[in-house]
UniProtKB/TrEMBL annotation:
It comes from Ramlibacter pallidus. The chain holds residues 558 to 811 of 826 of the full protein. It comes from the Bacteria. Residues 1-254 form the EAL domain. This is EAL domain-containing protein.
Length: 254
């Protein structure tokens, strides 16, 4: 309850911030970023999203907060669209189950895209497998609506949830994101290595893009690259950064 009222206050006082973490392709070039919420608490310091997203969901604060993240991402994409050296970049936005199920979600995404005038395929929505836990037909129908708009869809934290392989081929998705839990010990845990390799192989045979998160060392990257992984995200390349620092990071890229 304390967390809920604190969060409500933080939302009112603009203490929520967005950081952006680069994603890189096989050639090492940046392909886009993931938008990640941060809570700059005046006393507690930075509160990580794992600690407050569940509360945001329970209190429905995730609806206005999620809308704000989406607006910010589209505004940033609109700014990048005007620059030849940035126009190719995508922004991935995390969508919680509560947000996805909201009846206005599709209209919200559509109006954000229209008002910002961005190419819809620069926006990527990260969905989680838990969306599919109930009423999969309704979830798939909504995903199709989003795909019809031209938005790209990614399944976050893949491998830890409920999705069965038979559902996977029915889903109108573009990308799977290998959970960082599998990447962490990829060089020492043969099960994790096998799971990551299997997810990559699965994506390649289904024609899906695959991105690994939580890549911290070049050895992890090299293993994933040998399996054919398309993209990477993790501290090896860059931490999540506030926008100004992200711009500085991009300035330094070759
Ligand atoms: O930044 P960090 O790795 O601590 O984020 C942890 C998790 O918090 C992410 O994997 C993501 O699922 C969730 N998260 C971060 N930003 C957002 C957001 O804007 N909306 C939602 N729904 N979840 C987010
Ligand atoms: O959406 P998701 O929860 O998967 O977001 C990714 C989370 O992983 C973010 O909270 C981000 O801060 C965190 N993260 C990003 N890169 C790394 C990394 O290389 N190592 C670890 N441990 N965490 C990372
Ligand atoms: Mn994510
Ligand atoms: Na994830």
């Amino acid at each position: 309850a304390a967390l809920a009222s604190d969060l409500r206050q933080a939302w009112r006082d603009n203490h929520l911030k967005i950081e952006y973490q680069p994603q890189v392709g096989m050639d090492g070039g940046m392909t886009g970023v993931e938008a990640l919420l941060r809570w700059e608490h005046p006393v507690r310091g930075t509160v990580q999203p794992d600690e407050f997203i569940p509360t945001a969901e329970e209190t429905s604060l995730i609806i206005p907060i999620g809308h704000w993240v989406l607006e910010a991402a589209c505004a940033q994409l609109a700014a990048w669209a005007k620059r030849p050296d940035r126009a190719h970049l995508s922004i991935a936005v995390n969508v919680s189950v509560r947000q996805f199920r909201h009846p206005d979600f599709i209209d919200d995404v559509m109006s954000c895209i229209r008002r910002s005038g961005i190419p819809p395929d620069r926006l990527k929505l990260e969905l989680t497998e838990s969306l599919l836990a109930s009423n999969i037909d309704a979830a798939v129908a909504k995903m199709r609506n989003l795909k019809d708009m031209g938005v790209r869809l990614s399944v976050d934290d893949f491998g830890i949830g409920y999705s069965s392989l038979s559902y996977l081929k029915r889903l109108p998705i573009d990308e799977l994101k290998i959970d960082r839990g599998f990447v962490k010990d990829i060089l020492t845990d043969t099960n994790d290595a096998a799971i990551a390799a299997t997810i990559i192989g699965l994506c390649r045979s289904l024609g899906l893009e695959v991105i690994a998160e939580g890549v911290e060392t070049d050895e992890q990257r090299a293993y994933l690259a040998r399996q054919g992984c398309h993209r990477y995200q993790g501290y090896l390349f860059c931490r999540p950064l506030p926008l100004e620092q992200l711009e500085a990071f991009m300035q330094r890229l070759p």
